[in-house]
Every structure is written in C-alpha cells, then in structure tokens.
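Supplementary notes for students who missed Thursday's class. We covered one full example, reproduced here. Read the sequence, then the structure, then the short commentary at the end.
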Amino acid sequence: MSVILGISAYYHDAAAALLVNGEIEAAAQEERFSRQKHDAGFPRHAIEYCLAEAGLQLSDVDAVVFYDKPLVKFERLLETYLANVPQGFRSFVAAMPVWLKDKLYLKTTLKQELSALSGLKKRELPKLLFSEHHRSHAASAFYPSPFERAAVLCLDGVGEWATTSVWLGEQARLTPLWEIDFPHSLGLLYSAFTYYAGFKVNSGEYKLMGLAPYGDPKYADLIFDHLIDLKEDGTFHLNMKYFDYATGLTMTNRAFDELFGAPPRQAESEIRQRDMDIAASIQVVTEEVVMRLAKTIHQELNVDQLCLAGGVALNCVANGKLLREGPFEKIWIQPAAGDAGGALGAALVAWHDYHGAARIPVRPDAMKGAYLGPRFSSEEIKRYLDGIDAPYEEIEDNELMERLAGLLSEENIIGWFQGRMEFGPRALGGRSIIGDPRSPRMQSVMNLKIKYRESFRPFAPAVKHDKVSEWFVHEGASPYMLIVAPVQESKRLPSDGDEDHLFGVQKLNVPRSEIPAVTHVDYSARVQTVHPETNPRFYYLLDAFERRTGCPILVNTSFNVRGEPIVCTPQDAYRCFMRTEMDYLVMENILLCKERQPAWKENGDWRQEFELD
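Structure (token representation):
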C-alpha cells in the first residue's frame, strides 16, 4: 500500500489531502476545523482528519509533499527588492521576520510540526518532498480529470515565479510548455481591482465578479490602454507604474487613483455606480485575456480538452464564456482551484512523477463529487443534540424528503447538513443552506437575514443534472458550481420597461425569470448539476421538490454566515442555525424546527466573532 499526504500552508487556505494507492481518500481545508476563514497555519486538524478517515497513522505514510518551493519564492522576493531599490524597503522589512522565522527554514518547521502531531522522532518521519507551486496546480487540474490528453492552464496571483503556466497532460505525464512570470499576473490584476473596489484581497474577488453585471464596462479601454499590454496570443505585461504589490504594502498606488479619478472605496461604505462599472470593466478584461490564451493554447497543442486550476479558475463567469465561445470541446476545472487544491496536486505529483505510477482516467472524474471531508452519523448527531436538550424528530428518508419539499415550497429556509463535507470553496449539497428559487423574496432574505452579507450577491441554483438544459443554456455536467450560464429564454419573464430608472442593486428586486432567487440581473446563473451517483440524497430532495412544484431546482448557498468558514460539525451547524433566521435544520435524518428550540444565549454580539471578508 502506498500512502501520500499533500500539504498546503503558510500563505493562505492551508489544507491537507491523502492518497491511498493513488486514489483520493480524503481532503479538507484547515479553516473548517479552526473556524478561521482562509486559515494559513500548519493544517494540523486537516491532517489528523485525513489520516483518521483512512484509519492510518503518520507512520503509515510513505511521503509528505509540500505544495511549493519556499527557497525559490524567497529568491523572487529578494530579486524583486534588489531590482527596485530603494523602493519597497518597507514591505521588505515587513516580510523578512516571517521568512527568517518560518518560511526560509520550512523543512525544519514542517518536521517539527509533523513530529509534534504524531509523536514520531524526526528520523522516523515520512520522506518530505517539495513540488513547484504551478506544477501542484497543474497536477490537481489534470490528474483527477476524465481526459487522457489535455491542455492545462494555470492562472493565479503568483507561485514561486509563475503567474500563468501552460502544460500538456498526457496519461501520467505533465510537460511544462511556457509561463508568464511575476509581477505580470492576471490574478494580481484582478485582486488589485478587488482592493480598489473596497473588498478584501484573496477573499472579495467573488464579490467583484458578482457586482460586475450591475455595471457597464466603461473603464475597459482605460485598463487596456494604461494597465495591461495584451498581445493577440493572450500573453501580457502589466504597467507596474500603477501597482504597489511588488514593492509596497498595498495593491495599487496614487498613480492608479489618478488614472481612475478617485481613491479606493472604503470597505463597508456605500457601493456606487462607478464601483459597479469598475467591476464590469475588469471582468471584461479578464475574460478577454482568458479567451485569447485559450485560443493560442488550442492552436499550439491541437487538443480539444482543457483543464484549469489556480485562483483565476474560480471566475465562473469567464469559465462559462470559455465553455460556450472558446475553442475547446470540453473543459474540466479543479473544484478546489486555489491554494487548498495545491495540497491535492502536490500529492498527485509525488504519485505520478516521483513514484512513476500509471494513470487510468476516471469518469466523470476522480474527485468523488468533491465530497472528501468528514461525515457524521445520525447517532453522533443525536448524542450532541441530546446533550444540549435540543428537540428534534428522526424521520426516514422517503418521508423526510416529502416533508422537506413541502417546507421549501412554503418559503422556509433550511440548513442542509449531510454526508461528507465538500473540499473547495463551494457548498455542493453537503453543507448547504437551501430555499425555493421561485420565491421573489428569497434572495434578499437569505442575504440579509441568513448570511448577513451585501444584498447584491447572487445565489446559485442546484439542479437535477438531467433537467439542466430545460432551464439553462448549458449542456452536460457542472457539478462544482464553476460555470455561469444564461437562463433559458423560455423561463424568462417579459420586461415591463420600468427598469431604466433603477439604480444599480435596485435592479435586483425586479423578477427576471420563473426562478428569480437564482437569476442574476444579466439573466445568468452559477449552475450546479446534482448527480445521484455522487450525492443521492440531495438529488432525491430535488426530485421530491420537482414532483411537488414542477421545479427541479433549489437555491444552494454555503452553510455559514459572512466571514465564517463553511460549517464542518453538527455543533457548527446548530450554532449557525440558532444565530440566524433559518427556519429548519436537517442533519442526516434529524429534523429540527427553529420555533421549538430552547432560547439561544451568547455573551456579546457574535457578529464580532468573524472578520468580514
């Protein structure tokens, strides 16, 4: 038996992933256990979970693989500083203590942490290997994909040096072809606009994408003329005159502010039309870069399949356009496309590159629906609820699904906790909050009373996979909520012509389709197809809802509040249920009604517990 443990840590989104004989046994982000969103620390809890899931100890592991090479990253830091002396001295001084304490001596740090976790002496620890950052991304994209041969495109902020990389995947081999290096980065360009729009970098990019349809891309030409020199083949250079991320402590600078005529928006301040236009503009630019790169890669490699990873691969609007209008017949995107997925990619690098293991592609893919985290039995759930005197009902599946379908059709909002927790940033029917997409009030109620977040943010539809094309302009699977598609014309509502006078997010309250709660202002939706092979209970719930209402769709949003990681345990789920205005909570076969629960008491305002994202 071969056991490989992959780790990502110390930058953002720490995670662990475990391969047993090349099969993905378990994977999870540290944030789900520590309850600190984007936790970057050593993923102790995630490692302990992965080993426990497989019934193994660290002593059973053959190799531990870290997802990038810190010394090469340190080289980039030094070279960037030396190339810009004396600029950047403040950021260099700020970074050095962290590097000299932890990151530069990462091999020693990792061995200390692994030894403390396992009780093993350092000489007894598994072999410690290091993968390159973009190779980890590429491996996470290609090896679990269903393709025997495919182009691989990795787009993120920055790894060691690479920000964009192109690979050819063939059977069990990944061949690097070319790359674009720091500081020229599509991910950092998008993050610069995230910062400028008043959102948190490495967290608020989703908001920028969600805000874009409210605006007009008025600034796209300004971006192309001044910020990015985009070639016909998709390669690009950024004009570093306008950015501070290479040498300073912020993403943009005064020259950037002067170019756009205002300083960055203050976080949590009112969102203006210009902010929406800024968001629309950088989204258009991002899509253009991705489309040009895709056309070039397709021509160069003469393949019809494309795999994507890296943080930019989470831009589901660009992914949808690439699928509909791009040159590739099929695309596959790693659901944990960011740094968390690097842990899985690192383990796969060791399995295929280091051990030379063969690869047989699995259909639909090798990710098991991304349901790779912890699960809890009804008995474990009941023990917890009995311990806190929470009243509940235990109901068999057939009756439960019919009951839930009725509750949902009456506009109740339900916490849905079942099976294994998802790996990656999306809730996919394991740790979800669900509602009726036909309800015109559902979107605003969920945002303001459940998630406690900005009202403009859209929700996603979870749809039975065999009904997706009846409701959306999309064919085939989209199990990971990584493709945006238009709502079918036949499901749209005619416009009454009164929208012209509405401003920005006021347009949100205009019903646009038969499923207004999941239809964005541009008639788009971030589609998740649900499959009985990977999540039978969620599929059967959708089926019961369709039998009752004629609609095979539910609103699906992550089971958390703003700033909180997605819930992991029954304790997390019950706490979130009681803190919000959810009506019901179902955990496996256990149903709880909010009205019957004992009064919830906490010291102080729990909303101060989580840092806003």
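Commentary. The first strand starts at residue 3 and ends at 8. The chain has a mean pLDDT of 91. If anything here is unclear, bring it to office hours.
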